[in-house]
Amino acid sequence: MDHSGHGMTMDLPPFTLGRGLEWSADPFFLAACLAGLALYGWGVVRLVRRGDKWPVGRTVAYTLGVLSIMLMMCTRLNDYGMVMFSVHMVQHMVISMVSPILILLGAPITLALRALPTAGRGRKGPRELLLMFLHSRYMRIVTHPAFTIPLFIASLYGLYFTPIFDTLMGSRVGHIAMMVHFLAVGLVFFWPIMGVDPGPHRPGYLMRMLELFAGMPFHAFFGIALMMASQPMVTTFENPPASLGIEALSDQNAAGGIAWAFSEVPSVLVLIALLFQWYASEQRQARRTDRAADRDGDKELEAYNAYLASLNTQGR
């Protein structure tokens, strides 16, 4: 099915979930997703073969994250998303907020660092280049909240309320670039907040929660703006094909409702993940403290008891 132009030539029947979920693969996203799954699988197999363990939950999360992208881009949801604002908004929200969270919980960078071989002294292989990239000034900038939060907000208001969106939707390459951008924005926004992988910007858990809540209200405001609008706000979707049997304004209102709802769901998911990570971090710290106490014979406790005894002696 042709994705050129705004998709206005597509004679699609009225949308139903069954029709939307029919297979209609975008070659770029199909190849990218299959490559991502294959590389991750290679890393897991490499670890297992040498006797190392890799959490099954991480593999499941990463796989679901990639499959969620395929669901949005390799079914007829992608075709309907070219002409229906509401379906496009589902694509946007999933690819920018659900897929990144699942992929990050899969810890692909940690897997790569463990699976890739070292290049040897004085040489630089893929593992060394990845480490250099992770510790680069560029990564410190793009994962800092002063960059990620404005980018997260601009990807909504700066895209939909300017001619940029219509320009990108005017070609297949532009449409792919926009979807890749949504995924990248989601990854850099959520990575410092709840990503398992090591990163240059890793604040405390309370600060991470504040970063999360700093960005989410703007999603809600964006959704409300679409829901309350009295006329179509995006040129691409102002004249939907007659075969769909929909009205542009009601479809836009539905898109606004989807954007508003999605501002809540990922927030809850990330908050739950953060709380689990915080608890696990506290447990690890407690175990380290216990091991240190075992090594030094509980000298701190003995010193404290001696201090109490001295106070007791002085009080007599």
Helices and strands in order:
Layout: H1 17-20, H2 27-49, H3 56-73, H4 77-80, H5 85-105, H6 108-115, H7 126-134, H8 137-142, H9 145-160, H10 164-169, H11 172-194, H12 205-228, H13 248-262, H14 265-296, H15 299-314
Helix pairs in contact: 2-3, 2-6, 3-5, 5-11, 5-13, 9-11, 9-12, 11-12, 12-13, 12-14
Which structural traits does this protein have?
single chain, 316 residues, mainly alpha, 15 helices, 71% helix, 0% strand, globular, disordered N terminus
Structure description:
The protein is an all-alpha fold. Helices cover 71% and strands 0% of the residues. The chain has 15 helices and no strands. It has helices spanning 17-20, 27-49, 56-73, 77-80, 85-105, 108-115, 126-134, 137-142, 145-160, 164-169, 172-194, 205-228, 248-262, 265-296, 299-314. α2 (27-49) packs antiparallel against α3 (56-73), α11 (172-194) runs antiparallel to α12 (205-228) and α12 runs antiparallel to α14 (265-296).
Which regions are unreliable across 5 or more consecutive residues at pLDDT < 50? 1-9
Count of helical stretches: 15
Mean pLDDT: 85
Helix proportion range: over 70%
Radius of gyration: 25 Å
User: What is the count of β-strands?
Assistant: 0
Q: Beta-strand level of the residues, as a percent range?
A: under 5%
Biggest β-sheet description: none
First CA to last CA: what distance?
92 Å
Q: How would the global form be characterised? A: globular
